Amino acid sequence: MSDAVLSETVLEISGLEFQWSKQSPVMHVDQLEVLAGERVFLKGASGSGKSTLLSLIGGVTTATTGRLAVLQKDLQSMSAKQRDRFRADHLGLIFQQFNLIPYLTALENVLLTGRFSKQRKISQKDAFTLLDELGIDSQLAEKQVFHLSIGQQQRVAAARVLAGKPQLIIADEPTSALDEETRDGYLDLLFHQCQSHGATLVFVSHDRTLASLFDREVNISDVVRWSNTSMNNEQGGAL
Ligand SMILES: Nc1ncnc2c1ncn2[C@@H]1O[C@H](COP(=O)(O)OP(=O)(O)OP(=O)(O)O)[C@@H](O)[C@H]1O
């Protein structure tokens, strides 16, 4: 049984500080916790730090201070290589840009996930099934993705992310390019897949009408604040 199944907490952040550069403002995240199986909607104004927070959770960037644990593993203490491996094995990142390889078929794109992580390698048969569950039949699955519609490409991208059952899915504005009907269908499929795989979902969107579909809504301004100094300097100043 994996650590994720034993653990109730999938994401745990405390006292985190991050700066894009030495001249940039300091981003502080005092406390944030996400439990296994939760669907969390993260909202906030443009520039408030949603994508920055997701890149920290995904281990793409690292904080200077504090604790950030995903599936009970402290990303802060990992090397860049270990974080890349951890991301490939356990996380699913969905972006507005699909990052599909256009000249490969939908099926080949889905099978790519297993090239980066042995534990997420799935058979061709399972890849067809996953695509089919996301509304991409076997005929479409064998087409190069540049022949598919935007909505279909979005679903192939979701299938690639869901392949091999990642425990935490991080989605950054994945529906902003979709019309209302395609968006609702896509969300239904994503929720269904997360539920049947027991995955946790952290989803960022500007579209507040989506919030009611989630278990919990988190306003970024309640968890993130920006300042010109790190906590150590602030405390030093207050003494
Ligand atoms: N790669 C980067 N290098 C330097 N600064 C960055 C970088 N990415 C974001 N920032 C800065 O970090 C702050 C937060 O940006 P971020 O992209 O996280 O906000 P956001 O809430 O996702 O915004 P949006 O809703 O517009 O996508 C902004 O001041 C932005 O200029």
UniProtKB/TrEMBL annotation:
Residues 11-239 form the ABC transporter domain. The keyword Membrane does not apply. One of its GO terms (cellular component) is plasma membrane. The keyword Transport applies. GO terms for molecular function: ATP binding; ATP hydrolysis activity; transmembrane transporter activity. Keywords: ATP-binding, Nucleotide-binding, Transport. This is Methionine ABC transporter ATP-binding protein. It comes from Litoribrevibacter albus.
